[in-house]
Amino acid sequence: MPLYTADALVLRTYKLGEADRIVVFLTADRGKKRGVAKSARRPRSRFTGALEPLTHVRVAYFEKETRELVSLNYAEPVRSPLSAPGEAVHYASYFAELIDEWAPADDPNETLYRLGASVVDAMALGTSPELLARYFEYWVLRLEGLYPATDVCPACRRPLSGGAVLVPGAWHYICDECGHGGPRLSAAAITFLRHAATRTPVEVSTASASPGVLRELERAHHHLIATHLEKELRSTRVVKELRPSP
Ligand SMILES: [Zn+2]
Question: What CA–CA distance (Å, rounded) separates 136 from 67?
Answer without folding.
Answer: 33
